[in-house]
Amino acid sequence: MKYSVLIILVLICYSCKQEKAERAPIAVDVTNDIVLPKHYIVPKTDEVIIIDGHANETAWKNATYSDKFIDIEGVKQPQFDTQIKMLWDDTHLYVFAEMEEPHIWGYLKQRDTIIFYNNDFEVFIDPFDSGISYGEIEINALNTVWDLFLDKPYRVGGNADFNWNLDDMKTAVTINGTLNEPSDIDSLWTVEMAIPLQPFVSMKHNAENYPKDGEQWRINFSRVEWDHDLVNGKYYRKKVDGNYLKEHNWVWSNQKVINMHEPEKWGFLQFNDSNSNDGIEYIEDADLTIKQTAFALFRKTRYGDLKYLPENETGFNQPLEVKYSKNQTVMVEFSKTNIGFEYKLESPLTKITYIINQEGILKTL
Questions:
Q1: 77-90 pLDDT tens trace
Q2: Adjacent-strand bridge partners of 325
Q3: CATH number attached to the domain at 49-272
Q4: Backbone angles phi, psi at 216, to 5 degrees
Q5: Chain segment 272-327, per-residue pLDDT in tens
Q6: Residue among 163, 156, 165, 271 at smallest CA distance from 215
Q7: Residue in 43, 50, 14 with CA at minimum distance from that of residue 278
Q8: Closest by alpha carbon to 141, among 102, 189, 188?
Q9: Domain range list for the chain
Q10: What is the pTM of this model?
Q11: Nearest CA among 196, 167, 247 for reference residue 94
């Protein structure tokens, strides 16, 4: 009897292996789903930066403006220009934004209200490049701030903590024009921020370590712009048939979708210990495209045309041949786990194996 049971188990295992071996790979193309983020090398300053909404200090004058913002989906030309530049020191990250705007308005005055109901400027920071535990800052032309912490993106059930305040943050706004005055045409408004590093450092696994030369964080910037109506001389978000028109979203690094909360697409901030970027090279990640391939598969499986794969029973495995550039493919294995799913893929360049799960968390094997 004991031997019969053993033989049956051997046959079952052999059958499972045969089934797995005979399953043909699925061809998947993610070339249009991959985003290769922008980067910005941030010089260090030993100059005292006065947060007044003016970039008058020598360090600011020497800092380089970013590329102009693009539409969040990367398909339309923004109506007005937006650019940022950054500095840092031992305690703060400094951000200066300049935004063209012929009608500068705002009415939200209470901290931690939903600021993007006005035209606003937004910063998103993930100091550990983990896609979880990140901060968001929004500010309007009245210098009203909304700062919040997310334990993970909304797409996987993340919660926003509105009580998370950057108490040591300083912000200032300047108006080149007249605020809330529709009778004239304005020029632009600027935002200057001193964002404390410590709250973001505390999110990292090595929470005692402040940024060092060459360290990279994930960051992106967004500008929300509303079409407006004038009612009794006051600005309001524009309505058609009783419904607000959709806002315009302009960003630094392309998101490809109207969703800032896909942190794997944010740009890279690289800290530079020098006060000049001359001769400083950006540190490329050889596996960035493969990592972005893993995230593209996660999104397709969680929300897109591969949603059927997790419907299989626990233990189900499926090979995929994934096209991630014009002439390159990589073999990937999908596995249905008892709590969701995971993909496993090996980098053709570094031979490092990466695993991404149903929460969009990427790890090395």
A1: 999 999 999 999 99
A2: 328
A3: 2.60.40.1190
A4: -120, 135
A5: 999 999 999 999 999 999 999 999 999 999 999 999 999 999 999 999 999 999 99
A6: 271
A7: 43
A8: 189
A9: 19-33+287-364, 49-272
A10: 0.92
A11: 196
